[in-house]
Specification:
- The chain is an alpha/beta fold and 251 residues long.
- The chain has one domain: Alpha-Beta Complex (Spore Coat Polysaccharide Biosynthesis Protein SpsA, Chain A), CATH 3.90.550.
- It is built from nine helices and nine strands.
- The chain has a seven-stranded mixed sheet, sandwiched between helices.
- Helix 1 packs parallel to helix 2 and helix 8 crosses helix 9.
């Protein structure tokens, strides 16, 4: 078995310098490769990763601009050699110590998800707004997307999958950021497992969450289930109108 760990990056110089040795520390002795897919980071993330390739099994895919997380993962898969693919962020919010556990269960599961919402998992350092956004994204995915039903953390960015499963996936929203929702909705894998972990604040740098990211996620939901999405929007609009009407009557 060979493990390919795909890490999309944009301005993660300090984090990638720490993350790659940590990964090696936890999976040393296993047959693995690290693929850093960098979107032309101005802070020279790609150069730092290339320098580390003299000591660790690192490949660097350099892209000309910010082209989106989904397409970065897809491009990383295209140059990978492993029969097990691990997807994780570079910001150290995804603990590399969990990689062996994810890989351990891959023989009996198609996808193994690092889950914040299982017993033993959790979130640290989120403000109320960030927590509500994450919770809302999770609930919407579980309601609208068939492949996400029954999955506790369908929007996790940290997971392992068999290459034979992921090989059928093509990005439906190349600039999208919730790749797992795409994969679960598109492939509908039969055997999905979850492993708890605690999601912590990033070590350095700034969060990539933005209005564009949120709109991209909404487009993913719409593309995966147009009918269900429209019904949900119409239902929510009708409920809102009723509430406004009742409030007007009370006033």
């Amino acid at each position: 078995m060979k493990i390919s760990i795909i890490i999309p990056t944009y301005n993660e110089r300090e984090n990638i310098e720490r993350l790659i040795p940590l990964i090696d520390n936890y999976i040393r002795g296993l047959n693995y490769e690290i693929i850093v897919v960098d979107d032309n980071s101005p802070d020279d993330t790609a150069k730092v990763a290339e320098a580390l390739s003299t000591k660790y099994p690192v490949k660097v895919v350099k892209r000309p601009s910010k082209m989106g997380l989904s397409s970065a993962i897809y491009d990383g898969m295209r140059v990978s050699e492993g029969n097990v693919i691990v997807i994780m962020d570079a910001d150290l919010q995804h603990p590399p110590s969990l990689i062996p556990k994810l890989v351990k269960h891959i023989d009996k599961c198609d996808i193994v998800i690092a889950s914040r919402y299982l017993r033993g998992g959790g979130v640290q350092g989120f403000g109320l707004l960030r927590f509500l956004i994450s919770l809302g994204a999770t609930v919407l995915a579980r309601i609208l997307i068939k492949g996400c039903r029954g999955v506790r953390d369908p929007v996790s960015g940290f997971f392992a999958a068999k290459r034979e499963i992921l090989s059928a996936w093509r990005p439906i929203e190349p600039r999208g950021y919730k790749v797992l929702v795409e994969i679960l909705g598109y492939l509908k894998p039969h055997r999905v497992c979850e492993e708890p972990y605690v999601f912590k604040q990033r070590a350095s740098g700034t969060s990539k969450l933005s209005i564009q990211v949120i709109l991209s996620y909404i487009r993913v939901l719409y593309k995966l289930n147009r009918t269900g999405f429209l019904i949900l929007v119409l239902g929510a609009s009708a409920l809102f109108a009723v509430l406004i009407y009742l409030l007007a009557k009370l006033i």
